[in-house]
Known about the structure:
By secondary structure, the chain is an alpha+beta fold. 38% of the residues lie in helices and 23% in strands. The strands form 2 sheets. The protein has a 5-stranded antiparallel β-sheet with strand order 1-2-9-4-7. A 4-stranded antiparallel β-sheet has the order 3-8-5-6, with no helix packed on it. The chain starts with a helix and ends with a helix.
Amino acid sequence: MAEADSLNAAAPPPAPEAAGTGAPGSLEDQLRQAGLEVLGSCQKMSGRGPALLQHSALLEDFTMKELDTLGEAMLLIRAQPGQVLIAEGDAGDWMLLLLSGTVDVTKTTPADDDDPDAADSKSRLGVTTEGAVLGEMSMFDRDVRYATCTAIDAVEAAVLSRAAIGQLIRQQPGVGAKLMVKITQLLAQRLRNTSNRLVRLLQKK
């Protein structure tokens, strides 16, 4: 009994379960219904090389080992050119980390109700590439998606759900805490950029 207790005490904490189980209503099921190809978990994400860490503000402070731990909690998806990864107005409790490819981010402005001939207009908010994070705001506040993200060319991305982050914090608190700090920094930077753009617009008036 003493030997068994010793082995149990020395056992490492379990790795976080990969997001998505394939069960009806699961994240994996939702992604497939959206037409995205689900390739399984992002195990051994370090195999993509150090360039991923260098290109991603989210991952820049992670070690290769921590990157693999994070990858085990994420789903790997693939989208073809023209496919929508995130649709404006949809609900969603997950975010995307772009691993390869280019994504167009657009926002629809409703037509003027007073003009019967007017049509909705679409504005480009930006084009994102490897290392970028998309959809993190909706993941946290559970509000609908602010913009549409469409693959310009073939895209591979890692999907991280709100539930997977909670599990990561419980099972791998060091990695989970580092992830939360980085996401908070990204959100703060987006808010600062938006405030600066608003100031510039007001100064032009």
